[in-house]
Write a structure and sequence with these properties.
alpha+beta; Metallo-beta-lactamase, Chain A; six-stranded mixed β-sheet; globular; binds zinc ion
Length: 243
């Protein structure tokens, strides 16, 4: 007796727009069903990728409302009939600003979008028999979410975390402390061996960032070190000044 094989998914990163945003194309080689995470622009190019691999789009997920992550969602929905899902509803104001922002950045063809469904922390998405877990991770934007599949050990983290950096927090309703809390309380518990696809630049693993990231390494945040590391020696000395 052999166990029925779980469908194995393929993942390709397709940079879109002048901001080189990492749109992820995920698909099942057997059924040819595909999902986009963060179709931020270049709709024609993304449809061309589906054609190239012979795929049928069945899911479209957004991590947050910024133009380079969500700008092609409305057009792809019109042309494929696939629903737009995510991010959390607190990012709707960003989704309503895509056209304005795109004009200022000089990125043509991007459109505002209202999702068919908002994500909540703890939502479980199904795609080709696999579970994708949603975490609400505010800080870069208030409605940002991260989507993780533990079987494939992969997470799509948008602009929360990058290889060697973290997301900007100087936008309206951005919050640095909240972003760091999102990373340490929502991302790190997913596991050190999870590879993440950030919104821009190369992939990395949570474990590598916990060791080396200049913003959120354990050494800096105190994550997981608080209980195991002996009290700071310098502090002990000052508390033991008898004279
Ligand atoms: Zn962003
Ligand atoms: Zn971005």
């Amino acid at each position: 007796m052999t166990e029925p094989q779980r469908p194995k998914l393929q993942v390709r990163i397709i940079p879109v727009t002048a901001l080189q945003q990492n749109c992820s194309l995920i698909w099942n080689e057997e059924t040819k069903h595909a999902a986009f995470v963060d179709p931020g622009g270049d709709a024609e190019h993304l449809l061309g990728a589906l054609d190239h691999f012979g795929l049928k789009l069945t899911r479209m997920w957004l991590t947050h409302g910024h133009l380079d992550h969500a700008g092609a969602a409305a057009e792809l929905r019109e042309r494929t009939g696939v629903a737009v899902e995510g991010p959390h509803k607190d990012d709707q104001f960003w989704l309503d600003l895509i056209e304005d922002t795109a004009q200022r950045y000089g990125v043509p063809g991007l459109r505002n979008v209202t999702p068919d469904r908002y994500f909540e922390d703890g939502d479980v998405l199904e795609f080709e028999g696999l579970r994708f877990e949603v975490s609400h991770t505010p800080g870069h934007t208030p409605g940002h979410v991260v989507i993780c599949n533990k079987e494939m050990k992969i997470a799509f983290v948008g602009d929360v975390l990058f290889a060697g950096s973290i997301g900007r927090t100087d936008f309206p309703r951005g919050d640095m402390q909240q972003l760091i809390r999102s990373i340490t309380t929502k991302l790190w518990p997913l596991g050190d061996d999870i590879t993440f696809v950030p919104g821009h630049g190369p992939t990395s693993t949570f474990g590598h960032e916990r060791r080396t990231n200049p913003f959120v390494a354990d050494q800096i945040t105190g994550y997981a070190g608080a209980q195991t590391i002996a009290p700071d020696v310098g502090e002990q000395r000052t508390s033991k000044r008898w004279t």
